[in-house]
Sequence to fold (223 residues):
Amino acid sequence: MREVSKCKWNIPKIGEVEFARETLRFAQMSLHMGVTNTWLYRMLVGRLYYAAHHLSRRLLIEIGLQPEQWRTNVHQRVLNELDQRYVATGRMTPKAWRALNELRNLRRIADYQLAVPVRLRQVNRGLALFVRFADECYFFSSYFL
Amino acid sequence: MGLKETVAKIVREEMGECIEEDMHFTGSYEGEEFNVIIKLRYEPEDFEKRNARLYDRVWELGYDVGIFMEYPEETITV
Fold:
């Protein structure tokens, strides 16, 4: 069994990969249960994006960047840095990177544009984008995490 | 040509006949320039390719522009 590290408050600390897998599991489970609630759809899209965002930050930390010190445009900067340091160097496919970008857009509209309906189709799209991006991150995680 | 017009032109070139005429713009919400909301009339077989080109061309403009697709789906939500 994997040993779980603890933070200073003695709460088990969850890693980015574990968090991502758990997020995916809960999202899939919610849909399998047949939930058709637009509030939940918005929440799932948001959780999927942030799980992907955490994976992105981990990739950047592992090559020496410090995203925790960035103060502005953090999400755009994460995309920029991944593009320059992973995609341009052939370590990540444009397809995976694009998936993160699209997932980010999906999340932004789901959170801010209440007039725009978020449907099951968008959640399924979000799931597919998440898997596309996370699968490549998991590959690196075998080295980093 | 302004950024919105340029983005709208790219959207029309890539998605063409698949989209409703009335794409609209919204935001900024988190510092992005704006978001463009595109309503698909139908999802073409080569959607992934078109969407990838659309994303790449908009990214290459060098601005933070959001893209959102409304799919032609009749899902009942509560």
Notes: Residues 38-62 of chain A form the longest helix (25 residues).
